[in-house]
Write a structure and sequence with these properties.
CATH topology of the largest domain: pyruvate-formate lyase- activating enzyme
Number of domains: 2
Largest sheet: 9 strands, mixed
Shape: globular
CATH superfamily of the largest domain: tm_1862 like domain
Distance between the termini: 15 Å
Structural class: alpha/beta
Number of strands: 19
Strand content: 15-25%
Length: 458
């Protein structure tokens, strides 16, 4: 890693959003009511554009110490059974408000561990969704799986049902690291599952890695990266571990003394970038990589990459439904999130009400800044002509103060001006969260006061 890159990593490492949404979740309000969500669904019913659908399956057999997801640890079979019935009812409530708008271009099952469900339960839920929604021929149908608990029988069923993308949680292959994070997963479990996915014809396989975990070194993390490269996986996510034990209490089981220190963490991230780029992968946004023939890489080349709560995608939709505990919807010009605890989520739905507890209605300024941030985060460009076409505003007039701040990024070689606007350089994509922060009006207003707690940008 060059001295210049290391200095920039140190300079720009600060807390900041990942911008899966704008406005970000801390800006949402519990004053956004279930009735507000109904009105958002009604607005969304006025068009027949395809939808995206996220389904949250919160159950896990055991909690991993690093995990920041909304999960429920249980071995009681009645809990998933009751939860599935609640999902069915929520889908009915939502689709009744959407009227005839029921075409899906994208569906993703996340968790938790979706393959915690039995094959019978997986098929039942898929059939319930299929009864209410129509999948388009080129729909992306994805699921997250845990190699420790996923069976060949489940994979065969998923392939038969039409799932075509699959994401394997790995985090790190090193046994010492795995023990420290409470996730012992043998190489054989991962490699065997990966091989089965290939044999079953899944045309998109993703592996998740995390850097910044206890006992990670450049040497042992490089080995894990190389193992992923050797598999020729289609996509890789390399997430930064956010250690927030004051908020995520089970993270207190991680030995803080074993966590990589700041400079070491920079080197881990830089190593991942270098190894994946050298292996022919294309960097996607801030922390994803894809093979050059993958549709994400092609979308970056064409400037058509999109981002939503399910991650980077080529399936651009105006609305996304969130179903299940803690699920988030992006619908009818609003964000809406369900309750994040199992009982509080299930109770209102049992009474034929939706389970939304917070959200926000986007203002026109929110929409302008959201479009700007997504354009930068996904495709590394801001086209002034397209901005004016979309919103009837001139960049130089609307973003006068922001443009002055960008001078620092330009001076550091992270951005450059073009004939049509602004472009993030290859080096700058590492710092794309920092660049996006400039356009965040909420964070700008809080710079001299208390700011929301976010993970660090590096």
């Amino acid at each position: 890693m060059s001295d210049n890159i290391q200095k920039l990593l140190h300079k720009y490492d600060r807390p900041g959003p990942r911008y899966t949404s704008y406005p970000t979740v801390p800006e949402w309000s519990d004053k956004f009511s279930p009735e507000d969500y109904i009105q958002a669904l009604k607005r969304a019913s006025e068009t027949n554009e395809p939808l995206s659908l996220y389904v949250h399956i919160p159950f896990c057999r055991k909690r991993c110490f690093y995990c920041g997801c909304n999960t429920t640890i249980t071995k009681k079979p009645e809990k998933p059974a009751d939860y599935l019935l609640t999902l069915k009812r929520e889908i009915e409530i939502v689709t009744n408000q959407l009227d005839q708008r029921n075409r899906l271009i994208q569906m993703h099952w996340g968790g938790g561990t979706p393959t915690y469900l039995t094959t019978e339960q997986i098929e039942w839920l898929f059939n319930e969704i299929s009864a209410k929604f129509e999948f388009l021929e080129d729909a992306e149908i994805a699921i997250e799986v845990d190699p420790r608990v996923t069976t060949t029988e489940q994979l065969e069923l998923l392939a038969k049902l039409g799932f075509n993308r699959i994401s394997l949680g790995v985090q790190d292959f090193n046994e010492k690291v795995q023990t420290a994070i409470g996730r012992n997963q043998t190489q054989d479990q991962t490699l065997s599952l990966f091989k089965t996915c290939r044999e079953l014809g899944f045309n998109g396989i993703n592996i998740d890695l995390i850097y910044g975990l206890p006992f990670q070194t450049v040497q042992n993390f490089s080995k894990s990266i190389q193992q992923v490269i050797d598999l020729k996986t289609d996509r890789v996510a390399v997430y930064s571990y956010a250690h927030l034990p004051s908020i995520i209490t089970h993270q207190r089981r991680i030995d803080e003394n074993a966590l990589p220190q700041t400079e070491q963490k920079y080197k881990l991230f830089a190593t991942a970038i270098e190894k994946f780029i050298d292996a022919g992968y294309v960097q996607i946004g801030m922390d994803h990589f894809a093979r050059s023939d993958d549709e994400l890489a092609l979308a970056v080349k064409n400037g058509t990459l999109h981002r939503n709560f399910m991650g980077y995608t080529t399936k651009r939709t105006s609305d996304m439904l969130g179903i299940g505990m803690s699920a988030i919807g992006d619908i009818g010009g609003s964000f809406a999130q369900n309750y994040s605890k199992l009982d509080t989520y299930m109770r209102p739905i049992a009474e034929n009400q939706n389970a939304v507890f917070r959200g926000c209605v986007l203002t026109e300024d929110d929409k302008i800044r959201r479009w700007t941030i997504i354009s930068i985060m996904c495709n590394g460009v801001l086209d002034f002509t397209e901005l004016e076409k979309q919103f009837g505003i001139k960049y130089a007039e609307y973003f006068t103060d922001e443009d002055k701040e960008l001078a620092e990024f330009i001076g550091d070689g992270l951005m450059e001006r073009t004939e049509s606007g602004l472009k993030v350089t290859a080096k700058g994509m590492i710092f794309v969260r920092n660049i996006s922060l400039v356009f965040d009006a909420y964070m700008r207003s809080k710079r001299d006061g208390k700011t929301p707690l976010f993970s660090r940008t590096i």
